[in-house]
């Protein structure tokens, strides 16, 4: 008698009974299960390796050294930059919008500092817009009006004036493309580790983990510290100096320590 197992014929002549057949079937199933386990393990390892390689390639692409950023900063700063401000007034609705025009390509860009800004009120022509209002709106985006407002085009719905970057704008550019921000100081018993530019992991002396970041804006750096919880992050403090948010972090860590102690006594 012959029996087919796993695609192979097995000669069962001379076997005593069904117990031997069952043993062969069980062995064949164990071998098939082991092969399937090995196949899944190899496939999982391949996926993990591909994921690691992809992450390394992504980091290699995004993360630049301080020297590399300083080398490319001049081209980024000067290649596309607004040279004129342009108020536009709709001849139908009277709504006015202020836009910034690039001096290189003579068009507007969707940069977060260049996005068109609504001008309050209702005007019939751009000439009716208050000059002080325009100057304030331009300065709010980091620029100063240095030329005379003149009608632009033939339709009469726009006008332009030459603008120049303010010290606040230049400081903002330097904060983005310049050297890495200095690592904040920590006290005894604390730990701080750099994650990437402007982002640090901090462990308080009580052993609680925080995320410390700095973000450049026109009004100066914005420091923020968040506490890592099981559900995500809890913002602890946001201010203009690293020392102030560090104080907030220490107070938060100590307070949570007292809460844990009180809960332990209550229980």
Structure description:
The chain has 267 residues and is α+β, with helices and mostly antiparallel strands. 39% of the residues lie in helices and 29% in strands. It has helices at 18-62, 66-79, 131-140, 167-177, 242-266; strands at residues 2-5, 8-11, 82-89, 96-102, 117-119, 143-145, 150-152, 158-165, 191-196, 199-203, 209-217, 220-229, 232-239. A hairpin with a 2-residue loop joins strand 9 (191-196) and strand 10. The protein is elongated, with a radius of gyration of 33 Å.
Shape: elongated
Proportion in helices: 25-40%
Low-confidence stretches: 57-62
Question: What sequence of helices (H) and strands (E) makes up the elements?
Answer: EEHHEEEHEEEHEEEEEH
* Radius of gyration of CA atoms, rounded to a whole number: 33 Å
Helical/strand content category: alpha+beta
Number of strands: 13
- Counting DSSP H or I runs of 4 or more residues, the number of helices is 5
A few lines on this structure:
The chain is of the alpha+beta class and 267 residues long.
Give the tags.
alpha+beta, single chain, 6-stranded antiparallel β-sheet, 267 residues, 39% helix, elongated, 5-stranded antiparallel β-sheet, 13 strands
SSE arrangement:
Elements: E1 2-5, E2 8-11, H1 18-62, H2 66-79, E3 82-89, E4 96-102, E5 117-119, H3 131-140, E6 143-145, E7 150-152, E8 158-165, H4 167-177, E9 191-196, E10 199-203, E11 209-217, E12 220-229, E13 232-239, H5 242-266
Antiparallel strand pairs: 1-2, 3-4, 3-8, 4-5, 6-8, 7-8, 9-10, 10-11, 11-12, 12-13
């Amino acid at each position: 008698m012959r029996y087919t197992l796993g695609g192979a014929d097995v000669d069962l002549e001379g076997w005593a009974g069904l117990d031997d057949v069952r043993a062969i079937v069980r062995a064949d199933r164990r071998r098939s299960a082991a092969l399937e386990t090995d196949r899944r393990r190899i496939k999982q390892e391949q996926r993990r390796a591909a994921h690691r390689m992809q992450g390394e390639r992504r980091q290699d692409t995004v993360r630049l050294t301080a020297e590399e950023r300083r080398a490319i900063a001049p081209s980024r700063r000067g290649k596309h930059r607004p040279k004129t401000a342009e108020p536009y007034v709709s001849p139908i609705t009277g709504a006015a919008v202020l836009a910034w025009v690039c001096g290189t390509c003579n068009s507007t860009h969707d940069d977060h500092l260049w996005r068109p800004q609504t001008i309050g009120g209702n005007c019939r022509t751009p000439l009716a817009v208050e000059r002080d209002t325009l100057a304030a709106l331009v300065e709010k985006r980091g620029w100063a009006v240095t030329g005379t407002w003149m009608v632009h085009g033939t339709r009469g719905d726009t006008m332009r004036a030459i603008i120049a970057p303010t010290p606040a704008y230049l400081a903002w550019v330097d904060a983005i493309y310049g050297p890495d921000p200095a690592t904040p100081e920590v006290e005894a018993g604390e730990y701080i580790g750099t994650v990437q530019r402007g982002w640090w992991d901090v462990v308080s002396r009580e052993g609680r983990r925080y995320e410390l970041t700095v973000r450049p804006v026109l009004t100066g750096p914005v420091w923020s510290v968040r506490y890592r919880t099981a559900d995500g992050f809890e913002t602890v403090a946001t201010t203009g100096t690293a020392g102030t948010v560090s104080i907030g972090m220490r107070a938060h860590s100590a307070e949570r320590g007292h809460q844990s102690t009180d809960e332990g006594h209550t229980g």
